[in-house]
Write a structure and sequence with these properties.
- This protein is an alpha+beta fold.
- It has three helices and six strands.
- The strands form two sheets. It has a four-stranded antiparallel sheet with strand order 2-5-1-6. A two-stranded antiparallel ribbon has the order 3-4.
- The model has no long low-confidence stretch (mean pLDDT 90).
Amino acid sequence: MAQYAVLIYATDSAHRPNHTAEDTETCDRHAEELERTGAMVAAWALTPRDLATSVRGDTIIDGPFVDAKEVVAGFYILEAPDLDAALAIAKLNPACQEGGGVEVRPVAGGGFVE
């Protein structure tokens, strides 16, 4: 089965240091559903944009790489038979209904480094 990376774009991550269960409720419910169906291989939530540090050449700056309205708030890896199936699953991500969106890209290769 093919793997697809789903990059979640939102105004910021709900996973700030003092977040509550209410802040992440819709994301957690969505993740639980993907786990239950076996479609999600792995997932990572990112910290808020103000905790990002970017490197451009020899320069290190505070903040995300691009100053934009939306940033990557997290990502996960899906297994799906094809792109159409991956897109159908990705459309269910809460970010798509809460003003953000997702980007779906086939995974070319990789894995965990031990």
